[in-house]
């Protein structure tokens, strides 16, 4: 019909843990993860997708040291962001 289909591809990510490991990571790794997460969130926002549940437990670090954001279930982490802006792009930016 000429329309487009949008979706998310889910795959198992072999990982070494969540972003909680950042406390013991090098400054270089932390800066790289921050850039990867910011770039991913920016790409999602271009497609009008909100991550929403921004917190350390929702970022996996894979076996190659790359950051992956997970959990798009529509939740909100009130310890990290204001609940009043839940479901908006602003909640992602505040969480970052």
From TrEMBL:
GO MF, one annotated term: protein kinase activity
Domain Protein kinase positions: 1-96
Superkingdom in the source lineage: Eukaryota
Pfam family, one: Pkinase
Protein name, UniProt field: Protein kinase domain-containing protein
Organism: Glonium stellatum
